[in-house]
Amino acid sequence: MKIQYKLWMIFSSLFIMVCIFTYMVISNLYENNLQTSYEQISMAQGHGVIEQVKNTYPYADNRSIPYLRAYGEEIDGRLIILDDNKDVFADGFAELSKGTNLNLRVLTLESGAYFYETEDFGYIQYTIIPFRQYEINGYLLMIQDAEYLNVEIQAFQNWMVRILLVAISIFFMIAYFISNWFTKPIRQIIIQLNNITPNKRSFYLKYRSKDEIGALIHALENMVNELNLYGERQRRFLSTSSHELKTPLSTIQLITENLPYLREDQERHQEYIQDLSFEIEKMKQMVEQLLELNQILDVKLEKTSINTMDLKDYITQSFQYIAEDKHIQLNFKIEPIKLLVDEKLFLRCIDNLISNAIRYSPTNSQITIGMKQFKNQCQISIFDEGIGISKKDLPHIFEAFYRANDATAWNQEGSGLGLYIVKEIVERHGGTIKVESEEKKGTCIYIYLKNVK
Predict the structure, then answer these.
(1) Average pLDDT for residues 146-168, to the nearest whole number?
(2) First to last CA, the chain
(3) Which residue in 7, 131, 267, 398 has a CA-CA distance of 20 to 30 Å to 162?
């Protein structure tokens, strides 16, 4: 069932329940008020009767009966005088003998009325009134037909039912239009999503309200935009990968085609073999990095807690000897912080950055590695005194296979995937990475991570 109809049914059901409850409450109040009104009328009539028969009670029951019969005919009811024990003293119908004990619920009252529904006579009203205001111990019991009460109640209930049926019908229509209006954005979202194809990914829906549906539309727009960016990156990556792999393959093909003609020239033959080995190794490294990149994008992060002081020890053990071999000094400015990261991937990221810093730094220079708390984040900085990056290359250094000219001159074996992999690892951890650099003065790379303890 569609959400529109579910909402319609829910709203309508709730309104029907409210109408039923309202009907029961108002009907009960009306019945109670009506009974109170008729009780007051009966009490007034009863006091008038008592005023007339007070002189015959408790002296002569036979003299009381004619009065009771006459007054009973006037009020269209039956009048009975009860003694102080609530036994019959005189019956206007002369059917109950003196001293008869009656088993009526109304006799539990000192004064008041009860309404009963009987099978044979319909509604009957019993009213009991004491004589005590005349300083006499006794009671007047009035039995009257109350079918008129039932008729009025039924008429009022029928009127209420008609009113509520009209209200329910109107509400049904209103609820339908409200549910239709409320679910319209959802239907539009479904239409937009159904229009998305592998070749056409677009999502736009005009919605002004800043509610959950607006947030959903905004999230879907962002998701589609991210998919488009991801698709574009994938296409660009595949195109660049094909081109980058094609270059060493072309070189290898050229070398292998010329090798048979260079057998007599041993020096050139050996040079070609070395070039062939170099290109094969370069392509092997590129393929390995492509496989590593694919693994980074697909693997599920298994985050554990790493202390920055332990990270310092890891860097020292891994790179101290390599740095000393180039007479490069490693300096540390570390604050004790706990990071929540995937240890294997994160250490791969650090390895790449430190390796680059050492690779592109001259001898007798310094590399400063800092880790500190920065605006509820951990800032990791790696500053070297190397060749730096030109302004034209700086915006592109995190692109796949991009290599700055100066970097290529320093290191021919690089594939241009290192910093791209670093960026992917950082972003998978929800962090950001940025770089500041000046040619011939050095480069500083900053990583900001939110998963900090």
Answers:
(1) 88
(2) 47
(3) 7
Q: In terms of CATH, what superfamily is 3-155? A: PAS domain (3.30.450.20)
* Domain ranges across the chain: 3-155, 195-298, 301-449
- Per DSSP, 106 falls in state G
Q: Give me the chain's average pLDDT, please.
A: 82
Between 3.30.1050, 3.40.50, 1.10.287, 1.20.140, what CATH number should domain 195-298 receive?
1.10.287
| Amino acid code (one letter) for 127 | T
For the four alpha carbons of 186, 187, 191 and 194, in that order, the dihedral sign comes to positive
Do strands 432-438 and 442-449 pair parallel, antiparallel, or not at all (unpaired)?
A: antiparallel
Is 301-449 CATH 3.30.565.10?
yes
Residue 333's SS3 state is strand
The model carries a pTM of 0.49
**What band does 158 get if pLDDT is binned at 50, 70 and 90?**
very high
User: Which residue type does 287 have?
Assistant: V
Q: What is the arithmetic mean of pLDDT over 83-96? A: 87
The pLDDT of residue 244 = 62
CA 422/CA 437 separation, integer angstroms = 17
Strand partners, 377: 374
